[in-house]
Amino acid sequence: MKRSSRRNFLKSSAAGVAAVASTQAFSQSPNLSKKTIAEVRALEAKEIQKTTSGWNDGLAHPIPYKNPPGKGKDRAIVLGGGSEYMSSFLVRYFHAMLANGIDLRLADIVVGTSAGAVLGSALLGSRLDLFSAEFNLLADYPKIMAKLVPTKKFSPSQERVMKMGLTAKDGNPDTIQAIGHAAMAAKSIPSDKFQANMKVFLGDMKTIPKKMYITTIDCYTAERLVIAPDTGVSVIDACAASASAPGVTGPTWVKDRVCMDGSIGSTETHCDIVAGSRRALVVALADTIQQEKEGLRLNHLPNTILQEVKDLE
Q: What share of the chain is helix, strand, coil (3-state, %, to 5)?
């Protein structure tokens, strides 16, 4: 790096640090209204997101998606998350549809988040044969999950980030960044072990199926990332990132970003990716308090599924 370039780099870096430091100090000042504090935190979040504005990795796509890949497609499928509950349902659902002559693999585009990313990839990658027959799967799946993702005892750092998800009141960037930063500091299941677990479900799959789009969240910036088949990311890395539940597994590296579960954001299903498609099948958890009580949703972030489906009409 030339001396002048190095000097400019140091000047811009110092200015950025000073800006963040000043807003942090301001937000911690006494006697500030909640509105003012929220505005300052929003400003801090924007400053953090600016740090990747010059990146050209093809991953970050703000909501709503500009020129969505589903636009103009005839048939689209959106698969949401929901841990082992949604995984079990989707496997049974896929088998039932195939048994009745309905091949969901004929869809023109499939968007998957968390469990939906794994099962969508298995569907398009013809890996459903890795799972047991319907009834045996439903009986054995909790045992398999308990072995692959042990959750009997959590460390304080894990409990911290999980509590943040349960007490979150909005999906604003500063809220998601706080969860993401805590996820990076949590002593969770290492990403390499979680990726190895993914291979149990996806076998020898290497690449993302050509019609599959997988969502995840940048832990540091809270940007929504969409991993397309042509991004050069392996299907194992993409699915592990999409399913890296804060405080439980991961986070997982995708290129130069450390990522967490795709449902930790202002949307849990990312239906905007298939906006403009002629027909869309959306399989996701509904926005109900009862599902939270039963443990089907692992955070209290606003669930926008009903509005997202309406927007597709």
A: 50, 10, 40
